[in-house]
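Record type: ASSEMBLY
Status: queued
Input:
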Amino acid sequence: DTGVSQNPRHKITKRGQNVTFRCDPISEHNRLYWYRQTLGQGPEFLTYFQNEAQLEKSRLLSDRFSAERPKGSFSTLEIQRTEQGDSAMYLCASSPQSGQGTDTQYFGPGTRLTVL
Amino acid sequence: GDSVTQMEGPVTLSEEAFLTINCTYTATGYPSLFWYVQYPGEGLQLLLKATKADDKGSNKGFEATYRKETTSFHLEKGSVQVSDSAVYFCALSEGFQKLVFGTGTRLLVSP
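Status: finished
Output:
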């Protein structure tokens, strides 16, 4: 069990550029979540996948944000036309659909985005 | 909507002191409750959880009891160590849906 991995770990971009982050969940975890954490705050939910289906999206996820999970494995989160307010840590988590721990989410190390 | 409120930090303690971090919640149903910990430079780690009323979660000397009557899930440890210095997050989830987090409480333990 290698844990949830996220790439890149850090991203610095200029306002108006597009960025894409990748998350690889724990193998065989069907559920995948994205959160955003700003300095001094707790993580805020962005979106949730069960296998390849995106089942819930927060209203925090404006039309500049899009997430995909092709084939129900890794996921990508893309932000178009980045704004300075998008600067945050983007966290990915996964959980199993069956067995023990179905209510427990396991987090990756996060991708820190800085928009200049 | 669901929400979690935790005490503001930082909480500053000397080694071997008793720790309490308060957490209360608001939920429409019967959520599961969690404490996550974030050590400096690391990702969020599950510390403990409880899934129904009166359940006690415990791990690494930390404990928290799910109190439905007071909608609380306070984190306690009898004797803190310097290595416990971190940010602690209380969270809830209903079913297999999103986690709703509190704002976090920073704990600083000095030798």
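Annotation: The radius of gyration of chain B is 13 Å.
Annotation: DSSP finds no helices and twelve strands in chain B.
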